Amino acid sequence: MAVRTLGVEEEFLLVDPDSGEPRAVGSTVLRRAGSADLTAELQAQQVETATDPCRDLGDLLGEIRIRRGEAARAARAAGVEAVPLGTPPVPAEPHVSSDARYRAMVERFGRTGSEQLTCACHVHVAVGSDDEAVGALDRIRPWLAVLLALSVNSPFWRGTDTGYAGFRTQVWGRWPSAGPTGPHGSAAAYRELTETLLGTDTLLDEGMLYFDARVSAHHPTLEVRVADVCREPTDAVLVAALTRALVETAAREWADGVPADPVRVEILRLAAWRASRSGLDEELLHPHTWRPAPADEVVRALVDHVGPALREAGDLDTVRELWQALAARRPGATHQRRAFAQGGDLRSVVRDALAARD
């Protein structure tokens, strides 16, 4: 069986290189991007990159580094820096991009939209059909909070330490369509839910289905959206590799008629909250028992769960190495707090993220 392709989208803050304050120059950065594939986001203080589809993890790492370099050069040409931070450490007032859709979102959703200055990492994994996509979607749900825990990179919000390792999830969760979903059962049921949600005239369009994972409306992929933008490129590769293995494992279970775990959305919300609160530093909910367990034990359980898929893709050794490195180094939230403690101000947090970006 061919290894599925995967791609990574990353969102970056645009900040003043001296003060660390976000700057609303997204349109200028896009003009400076030339042939680079950068896109606008909701707020003018951010941009998004996207890799080409890859099969090999080494190629994916190269793509991520290329895209980060392109974003960095375009940002510098506009007098700012593009930094991988899930939320802005330095206080900022978001400025909505000029795009008519984004302005309509803010008009409809008020402060929930106007305050959304957050940066995530989205992983796209190729699927053969909508039926396979929904079959996999139903079966990856228990493990998505673990991916969040691996990526947490947003402890600061509006100039203060929130007490969370991944506060972006808390901010993002204010959207009425965000978060985990229940099992759908079929592609037809997924489409019916989509039509019902859009029929409420609450969401502007299908792009506002902000589920933790969703069937892409524009690509033949399953899109997993739980992770913070990662501090380092290798962390993004780890999240992506585990995501692909999760989708492959779940697709095989679907094809074999293995029923999806019926775990309720309420429990998944608790699992996500714990991952957002403490990342890898405390206990996570173990998907085998839904009881607290040490975070490293839960990550190892995820690797074991997708082990056959990782091995067949040739990714197992790489994932183990990347996990060992992250376990020793810790995710971005730890580095942000350490930089703040050592530097004494939030500008130090931004400088630390810049040092690890490429």
From TrEMBL:
SUPFAM superfamilies: Glutamine synthetase/guanido kinase. Transmembrane segments: none annotated. The keyword Nucleotide-binding applies. Its EC number is 6.3.2.2. It comes from the Bacteria. The keyword Disulfide bond does not apply. InterPro entries: GCL_type2/YbdK_subfam, GCS2, Gln_synth/guanido_kin_cat_dom, YbdK. Keywords: ATP-binding, Ligase, Nucleotide-binding. Signal peptide: none annotated. It catalyses: L-cysteine + L-glutamate + ATP = gamma-L-glutamyl-L-cysteine + ADP + phosphate + H(+). PANTHER family: GLUTAMATE--CYSTEINE LIGASE 2-RELATED. Belongs to the glutamate--cysteine ligase type 2 family. YbdK subfamily. This is Putative glutamate--cysteine ligase 2. It comes from Pseudonocardia lutea.
